Amino acid sequence: MKLGLFIRPCGHHIASWRHPRAQADAGVNFQHFVEMAQLAERGLFDMLFSADSLTVWTGGEQGIDLVHYVAWIEPWTLLSALAAHTKRIGLVCTASTSFEQPFSVARKFASLDLISGGRVGWNVVTSGNETEALNFSDTPHLPKVERYKRGREFVDVVRALWDSWDGDAFLRDKAKGVFSDRSKMHVLNHHGDYFDVQGPLNVARSPQGQPVIVQAGASDDGRQLAAETAEVVFTAHHVVETARIFYADVKRRMVEAGRDPDSLKILPGLSVYVAPTREEAQAKLQELQDLLHPELAVSLLSRRIGHDLSAYALDEPLPDLPENVVISSRSDMIIGWSKEGSPTLRELALRFASSRGHFTLVGTPQEVVDEMQHWFETGACDGFNILPPFYLGGLEDFVNMVTPELQKRGLFRTAYEGTTLRDILGLPTPVSRYASKDEA
After folding, report:
1. Among 42, 141, 170, 241, which residue's beta carbon has the most beta carbons within 10 A?
2. Residues paired with 274 in a beta bridge
3. Strands annotated E in 97-167
4. How far is CA 113 from CA 90, 256, 426, in A?
5. What is the model's pTM?
6. What integer pLDDT is reported at residue 122 of this predicted model?
7. Cβ–Cβ contacts within 10 Å for residue 86, how many?
8. How does the average pLDDT of the chain come out, rounded?
9. Cα–Cα distance measured from residue 257 to residue 249, given in angstroms and rounded to the nearest whole number
10. Would you put residue 227 in left (φ > 0), alpha (ψ -120 to 50) or beta?
């Protein structure tokens, strides 16, 4: 089983920063992130995963913008610094194909991969939030289909740039005055629908061949992009049945694209409230729910569903809403919840805010691992992306209670398998597109 740790300043419950044991200054407290990373490494997690947003969500315009965490350290800078404080755990963060350029993304991630000794992954996003576009130009955000076409070409260019140099291209022969073998440098000369990039990249080849490609799209376009390009997929499912359908679909698409299904790991998000007894675990969840403003929960739900729900009655079921074509996958999931027993808007909002729409387990270590094992062994996932409800306590609970139970059952490592992210994920090392047939 593979485990990612989804890092956020105070935790994944939207009220986490108000928890008595949380650090309210976590977003600007670098030592807090160091402790988080080192604890995750002690727990033998495969990777740290830092998502990113290029805009600020304040919680709406109803006077509730002071009860939500709105700012923290930029992820790529953060992981660069954390590389010096960790030794084995992978480092994955986001860069948008809608607002970045392939050369700069290739250069940044290749550099961080060298700094970390080959532990880096790039989370590819096309940025579905239209407000992000307002921070870059006055050009309207591209339609979804167009964003994915641009994203596909963007990934192709980045990967090609990562092949700019063969692994043995740099001779550094002082006596002969020969620094590099020019025949092992490759100029890209890419001319596509969206980008013109000459190359080569001015960073040496990665210790792991190339950084790992991570992706999180759940729509049809997202699944296809994942099947063609990704090596890790983060996804959101709250029941095992939909997780199995997603898993089988993406793996099937990989085969159709000529890829080995084992060369991609699918990790649904999982929030865990664990304690020696179920009652204690439930109390941990309720403690955070009691700190949550219902209006803030509704505002968060509105943002993720793509409709303003503030005018609807809190204690009435959610009415029928039109389809949201911008963020359809998460919107569809929430609409599905609304049809399960006719929950009220308040109940839906509180449920979503507790884990931001991801699968939640509440119980003893044995109960939690029973369900994780069921998902893992019945074709729903290759592991999980863990979302602790608050830091550092939620992570400590997982490492101290869940990890030992996983190890006891032979479901999780007892030591890291190697030094690179590909080593510990069990992913193949990419062969350069310029390699000879014998090398390939």
Report:
1. 141
2. 363
3. 120-125
4. 10, 31, 17
5. 0.89
6. 97
7. 18
8. 88
9. 12
10. alpha
DSSP 3-state of 397: helix
**CA gyration radius, the chain:** 22
Length of the chain measured in residues? 440
pLDDT band, residue 53 (cuts 50/70/90): confident
| Tokens matching residue 424 | 């510990």
pLDDT tens string 306-357: 777 877 877 788 777 766 544 545 555 665 665 565 678 877 877 777 777 7
Distance of CA 266 to the CA centre of its chain: 11
Residue in 200, 231, 240 with CA at minimum distance from that of residue 429: 231
pLDDT at residue 340, rounded to an integer: 64
Task: Name the strand (E) or helix (H) holding 77.
Answer: helix 75-82
For residue 269, list its beta bridge partners.
385
Main-chain phi, psi angles of 15, to 5 degrees: -100, 15
CATH classification of 2-272+360-425, choosing from 3.30.365.10, 3.40.50.720, 3.20.20.30, 3.40.190.10?
3.20.20.30
DSSP secondary structure letters along 231-292: SEEEE--SSHHHHHHHHHHHHHHHHHTT--GGG-EEEEEEEEEE-SSHHHHHHHHHHHHTT-
- Give the pLDDT score at 298: 77
Residue 242 and residue 276 in contact, taking contact as beta carbons nearer than 8 Å: no
* Residue ranges of domains in the chain: 2-272+360-425
128 pLDDT more than 70: no
Q: Mean pLDDT over residues 184-201, rounded?
A: 97
What separation in angstroms does the CA of 286 have from each of 235, 292, 295, 299, 434?
25, 10, 17, 20, 56
150 token code pair: 């641009």
Closest CA to 168 of 437, 434, 438: 434
Cβ burial, residue 107 (10 Å; 0-12/13-18/19+)? middle
Instruction: Count how many Cα atoms sit within 13 Å of the Cα of residue 145 in the half-sphere of its side chain.
Output: 0
* 3-class state of residue 150 by DSSP: helix
Question: Tokens at residue 370, please?
Answer: 């029973």
Question: Measured on CA atoms in the order 331, 334, 340, 342, is the torsion positive or negative?
Answer: negative
